[in-house]
């Protein structure tokens, strides 16, 4: 029996996670289905704005313009609040694989994340993590946390809040494509992004110093399936999609880590200097920040979701994987 | 009918409906809506696509450049900056055969750097330069033709509403598109001047005119007074974008504020004129963005039908060369240009051709310049040539018919086509300034 | 209903619709000014005072929706919606009757399209109102979705109404050339 599947993402086919849908996810599903031979998929892949823009994947899957899609969750803070779990817990793990696994397990052990997607008429399959850690890229030599005081830092989304505890530091909003210019012209002193993106956008040319702060990996992608489509799928296909989504999760996170390593080497080769932020400074920075994790948990608690429990369980999973938080975000009372 | 057939039939249906006079956004929206409904046999899906497209497209941050640059252009026209730069140019070209024509081209090129639309250019220069050319016995067809031809520069030299629209459809940076437009725009201006010079030399009757009477040269003070404001604006807007100090949106806002300050300082604007400029900005913005919204329904419909993928595959198997792809593209744009306005052409053809261009390893920035120049040839061709219409209406002179304007503009359309071919042949002309 | 009362009713309704369209247009016009001010405020706050306005992006997006949809009904009212009317003009001089029917048919199709948009957006509005969805970054700057959906809905309804009244009153004073508006009055 033949089953059609329209796969959508607003990002172009050359983006890391989209490429791996084509090269890993789809062939793997086909392979497993071929073992029993009961079903065969007819894939129709549409990427790069042909049907939806990057922000439009969530609505696209919800409304049936695509059957399977990669939702970029950071665009949807209000519809998918619990997806911010790793963004609100900086200074824990600069490891895509560990964070992807922990977030995915939280999604499967607690009902909240699946409920949020369910409200958008879609079924959660797995979490994707494509960035190993935010770091700071600077035009001028940088040695310690002190250098950030009074500075302007380009960032995007929730990471702007990491700057809140640093005296007189100001976050400036920008997109990945703007950071090169912002640092070059001196509009900002720093840009906050991850090494792989820094290499793509040639940050070494304008920002030869990288402060290795290891703010941490963040989950930004989720594979989802339209609920009506899902309900019409045979159990065998559902099972295979679920299994392969988990493999895809680890596969993509693994590639992200490889790329991160290569990008750091390339940065140094291009004349960049990596300055390690001292452990004391990391603690000082984490302590200076508002506890955005507790804010996040409280908001979910207030909405009747197990926010605090999810936070505890998440940090517990990472601790078990060998990543002790610099500041125990869960230890403090919420109010 | 297969989705692919429905998709292609819908393109034909849109072209026909637009030709018979259906509002272009309505034609795009309604045909796409029905196509999706038929294709998937699902009315709700068609409604859902409408839901996503409406509002989504308007929410694009960079689209704020449309009202901001429109407002800036309207304000500086009212402040008389176009007339000023024309007088200075005229003072420089006075000794040359066809000098007023050359001055018009030059002034248009400079004025283009502070306005985003060709309509503004066409209306400003029909008022200042056509009457002067007529009073010096220039051939009326040449007089209106040169204004029509050079008004096109307004939408090639940045800022330009058309470059903004393309950057949205092709997902390119507005800043990159703006920078890429500079050299082709200047090239076109140079080609026009060259054409006038050649004709002045070999076919003086085509230009007509008699030598200038001895008049006084502009003093340095006057020149400074007439050029400094526009120079300042260009430095802030294009300089801001080029150095990265300002995003295109911010450059548009700064330019608007600065233009307003200049207009007020020179007492060239009343409160009523200011309000009208704002009002018209809103109307133009609403019309353009509603068109873009409808076009995004259309391009998503094509995506759902799989037309871009199928065209790409077809091209791969048919092994069309670069030459033939571009040949078809230019012919299609010129054909649509007879009746469609520039933004509609861009919004209809780019989604069809983008999937063919990208795999060929061609630069999408370069493709954007080719598209904008090609689509703007239509501004000069009958039966619907917006620049020519504006000139005819602005002049309001019975001695010059609409036909005269089109006949006069024709040689300039041919020069545009030649420049377009050069731009296609030598992509570095568009890309040099970026690298 | 007699033809006369129908005409009076339609004319009255048309005056009302025009009034609303013109007022909405004026509000949209003020938003254009607001847009210029907000972006300049951000540029200066960032460049001079090291204190960027972190909500500039959302405010700009919000203003764009307001400008477009508050002004769209007026754009339709004054016949400035993009169209190519070369064929209609030729037709009008030779076959005025066919020409009129075609014009009314086009307005009718357009009214249906605007109605479809209104129907598509209404559930979005009620959903956003209920869930209080927002866009932007929590803790940095956020703006609610529901006013946006409401403006689009009301705009689509008004556009449809303006088009229907154009048909009812056979009022479609088109011109071949759409000149920059207000040119003449301002120059004099
Ligand atoms: Na321009
Ligand atoms: Na034309």
From TrEMBL, chain B:
Cell compartment(s), UniProt: Cell inner membrane
Lineage top rank: taxon: Bacteria
Keyword presence, Zinc: no
Major location category of this protein: membrane
Membrane-crossing segments per the record: 6-38, 58-80, 100-121, 142-169, 181-202, 223-242, 277-298, 318-338, 345-367, 373-393, 405-426
Keywords tagged on the record: Cell inner membrane, Cell membrane, Membrane, Transmembrane, Transmembrane helix, Transport
Record flagged with keyword Ligase: no
InterPro entries in alphabetical order: DctM, TRAP_DctM
PANTHER family: C4-DICARBOXYLATE TRAP TRANSPORTER LARGE PERMEASE PROTEIN DCTM (PTHR33362:SF5), SIALIC ACID TRAP TRANSPORTER PERMEASE PROTEIN SIAT-RELATED (PTHR33362)
NCBIfam families: dctM
Record note on quaternary structure: The complex comprises the extracytoplasmic solute receptor protein and the two transmembrane proteins.
Function recorded in the entry: Part of the tripartite ATP-independent periplasmic (TRAP) transport system.
This protein's name: TRAP transporter large permease protein
Taxonomic source organism: Tropicimonas sediminicola
Lineage: Bacteria, Pseudomonadati, Pseudomonadota, Alphaproteobacteria, Rhodobacterales
UniProtKB/TrEMBL annotation, chain C:
Tripartite ATP-independent periplasmic transporters DctQ component domain ranges (all copies): 35-168
Gene Ontology CC terms, in alphabetical order: plasma membrane
One MF annotation (Gene Ontology) recorded for this entry: transmembrane transporter activity
Topology versus the membrane: Multi-pass membrane protein
Coarse class of the protein's main subcellular location: membrane
Keyword Zinc-finger: no
InterPro entries assigned: DctQ (IPR055348)
Superkingdom, taxonomy of origin: Bacteria
Subcellular location: Cell inner membrane; Cell membrane
Pfam families: DctQ
UniProt keyword terms in alphabetical order: Cell inner membrane, Cell membrane, Membrane, Transmembrane, Transmembrane helix, Transport
Residue stretches spanning the membrane: 20-41, 53-72, 105-125, 145-169
Role summary: Part of the tripartite ATP-independent periplasmic (TRAP) transport system.
Family: Belongs to the TRAP transporter small permease family.
Subunit structure, as described in the record: The complex comprises the extracytoplasmic solute receptor protein and the two transmembrane proteins.
Official protein name in the record: TRAP transporter small permease protein
Lineage: Bacteria, Pseudomonadati, Pseudomonadota, Alphaproteobacteria, Rhodobacterales
């Amino acid at each position: 029996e033949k089953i059609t599947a329209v796969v959508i993402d607003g990002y172009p086919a050359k983006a890391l996670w989209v490429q791996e849908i084509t090269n890993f996810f789809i062939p793997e599903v086909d392979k497993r289905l071929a073992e029993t031979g009961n079903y065969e998929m007819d894939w129709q892949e549409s990427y790069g704005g042909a049907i939806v823009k990057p922000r439009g994947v969530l609505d696209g899957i919800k409304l049936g313009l695509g059957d399977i899609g990669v939702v970029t969750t950071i665009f949807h803070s209000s519809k998918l609040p619990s997806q911010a779990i790793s963004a609100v817990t900086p200074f824990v793990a600069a490891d895509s694989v560990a964070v992807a696994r922990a977030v995915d397990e939280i999604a499967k052990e607690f009902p909240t994340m699946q409920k949020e997607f369910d409200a958008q008429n879609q079924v959660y399959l797995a979490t994707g993590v494509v960035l190993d850690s935010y770091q700071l890229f600077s035009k001028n030599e940088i040695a310690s946390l002190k250098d950030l005081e009074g500075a302007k830092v380009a960032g995007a989304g929730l990471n702007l809040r990491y700057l809140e505890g640093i005296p007189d530091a100001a976050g400036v909003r920008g997109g990945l494509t703007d950071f090169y210019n912002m640092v070059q012209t001196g509009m900002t002193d720093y840009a906050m992004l991850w090494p792989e993106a820094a290499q793509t956008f040639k940050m070494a040319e304008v920002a030869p110093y990288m402060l290795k702060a290891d703010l941490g990996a963040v989950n930004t992608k989720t594979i989802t399936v339209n609920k009506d489509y899902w309900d019409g799928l045979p159990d065998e296909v559902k099972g295979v999609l679920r299994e392969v989504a988990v493999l895809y999760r680890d596969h993509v996170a693994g590639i992200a880590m490889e790329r991160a390593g290569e990008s750091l080497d390339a940065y140094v080769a291009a004349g960049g200097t990596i300055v390690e932020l001292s452990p004391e400074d990391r603690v000082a920075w984490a302590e200076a920040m508002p506890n955005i994790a507790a804010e996040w948990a409280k908001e979910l608690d207030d909405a009747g979701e197990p926010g605090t429990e999810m936070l505890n369980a998440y940090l517990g999973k990472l601790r078990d994987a060998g990543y002790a938080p610099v500041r125990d975000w869960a230890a403090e009372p919420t109010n | 009918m297969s989705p692919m057939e429905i998709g292609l039939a819908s393109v034909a249906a849109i072209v026909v409906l637009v030709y018979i006079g259906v509002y272009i956004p309505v034609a795009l929206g309604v045909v796409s809506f029905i196509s999706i409904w038929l294709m998937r046999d699902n009315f709700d899906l068609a409604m859902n696509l409408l839901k996503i497209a409406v509002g989504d497209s308007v929410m694009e941050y960079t689209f704020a450049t449309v009202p901001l640059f429109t407002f800036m252009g309207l304000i500086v026209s009212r402040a008389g900056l176009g007339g000023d730069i024309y007088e200075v140019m005229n003072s420089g070209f006075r000794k040359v055969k066809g000098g007023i024509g050359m001055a018009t081209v030059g002034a248009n090129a400079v004025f283009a750097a502070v306005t985003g639309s060709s309509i503004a250019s066409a209306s400003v220069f029909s008022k200042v330069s056509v009457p002067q050319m007529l009073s010096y016995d220039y051939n009326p067809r040449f007089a209106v033709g040169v204004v029509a031809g050079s008004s096109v520069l307004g939408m090639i030299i940045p800022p330009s509403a058309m470059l903004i629209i393309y950057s949205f459809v092709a997902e390119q940076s507005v800043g990159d598109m703006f920078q890429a437009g500079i050299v082709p725009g200047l090239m076109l201006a140079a080609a026009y001047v060259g054409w006038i010079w050649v004709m002045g030399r070999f076919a003086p009757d085509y230009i007509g005119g008699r030598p200038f009477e001895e008049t006084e040269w502009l003093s340095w003070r006057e020149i400074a007074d007439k050029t400094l404001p526009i120079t300042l604006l260009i430095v802030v807007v294009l300089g801001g974008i080029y150095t990265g100090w300002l995003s295109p949106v911010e450059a548009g806002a700064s330019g608007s504020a600065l233009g307003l300050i200049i207009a007020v300082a020179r007492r060239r604007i009343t409160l009523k004129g200011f309000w009208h400029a704002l009002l018209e900005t809103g109307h133009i913005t609403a019309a353009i963005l509603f068109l873009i919204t409808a076009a995004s329904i259309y391009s998503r419909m094509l995506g759902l039908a799989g037309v871009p993928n199928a065209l790409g595959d077809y091209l791969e198997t048919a092994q069309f060369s670069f030459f033939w792809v571009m040949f078809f593209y230019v012919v299609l744009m010129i054909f649509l240009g007879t009746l469609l306005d520039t933004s509609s052409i861009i919004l209809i053809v780019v989604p069809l051709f983008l999937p063919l261009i990208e795999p060929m390893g061609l630069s999408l920035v370069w493709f954007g310049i080719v598209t904008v120049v090609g689509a703007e040839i239509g501004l000069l061709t009958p039966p619907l040539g917006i620049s020519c219409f504006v000139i005819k209406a602005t002049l309001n002179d019975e001695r010059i018919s609409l036909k005269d304007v089109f006949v006069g503009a024709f040689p300039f359309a041919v020069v545009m086509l030649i420049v377009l071919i050069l731009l296609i042949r030598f992509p570095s002309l568009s890309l040099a300034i970026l690298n | 209903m007699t033809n006369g009362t129908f005409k009076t009713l339609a004319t009255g309704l048309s005056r009302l619709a025009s009034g609303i369209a013109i007022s909405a247009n004026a509000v949209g016009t003020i938003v254009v000014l607001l847009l210029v001010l907000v972006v300049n405020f951000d540029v200066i706050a960032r460049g001079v005072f090291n204190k960027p306005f972190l909500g500039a992006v959302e405010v700009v997006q919000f203003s764009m929706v307001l400008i477009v949809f508050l002004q769209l009904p007026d754009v339709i009212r004054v016949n400035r919606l993009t169209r190519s009317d070369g064929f209609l003009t030729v037709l009008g001089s030779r076959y005025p009757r066919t020409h009129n029917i075609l014009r009314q048919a086009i307005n009718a199709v357009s009214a249906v399209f605007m109605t479809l948009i209104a129907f598509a957006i209404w559930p979005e509005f009620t959903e956003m109102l209920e869930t209080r969805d927002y866009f932007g970054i929590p803790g940095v700057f956020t703006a609610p979705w529901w006013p946006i959906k409401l403006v689009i809905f009301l705009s689509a309804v008004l556009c449809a109404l303006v088009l229907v009244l154009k048909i009812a009153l056979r009022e479609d004073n088109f011109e071949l050339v759409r000149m920059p508006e207000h040119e003449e009055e301002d120059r004099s």
